[in-house]
Amino acid sequence: MLTGSLTTRLILLRGNSASGKSSVAAELRARYGRGLALVGQDTLRRDVLRERDVPDGANIGLIDTVARYALDHGYHVVVEGILYASHYGTMLDALRHDHRGRTHAYYLDVPFAETVRRHATKPQAAEYGEAELRGWYRPLDLLPGGTESVIPATSGLGETVDRVLREAGLTAQGPRECV
User: Fold this and answer.
1) Sign of torsion over alpha carbons 162, 167, 173, 175
2) CATH architecture label of 9-168
């Protein structure tokens, strides 16, 4: 089922825990302003459904539904999360193929030692540690078909956001308050 329009943009941000996905997504929205919807895997899976990340989990369909709804209502959409290729690949591939506008997919590639270092700076650092991070970590868990651009750990936040905005053809409008 086709979704969005020729003018909407779909941006997929994937990577391991603490790779910077949420920071990049938040900065994209801050720079772009209104009209850019964030569809966060953690928000829908953990907060809305309180579901573990499992194959065929209910959150997979919810992520797809929310992204399509926003695209169909003229929003640019950023889908961000770990989004394991084995669990989410089929849904993301269908979403990408069904989107009428341009889609850009990125994998933030951060070595395990760096994810541990970055995790220590997060507010939820005490909730889980290196053992859990190691269990979740999947090196270069790319989607099939070579659809993702790999962004290395050496790319800073500003550089990464600049790249995504430029490649997606989105002009940074600056923050706009919700009323």
Assistant:
1) negative
2) 3-Layer(aba) Sandwich (3.40)
Angle between helices 85-98 and 58-72 (to 10 degrees): 20
Q: Determine the Cα–Cα distance for residues 38 and 61; give it in Å rounded to an integer.
A: 16
Tokens, residue 58: 């209910």
What is the Cα 119 distance to its own chain's centre?
Answer: 17
Site of tokens 């669990």: 87
Helix (H) or strand (E) holding 152: strand 148-152
Contact 32, 170 (CB under 8 A): yes
- What the block records as the tokens of 6 is 């020729």
All residue ranges of the chain with pLDDT < 50 are 178-179
pTM of the model: 0.91
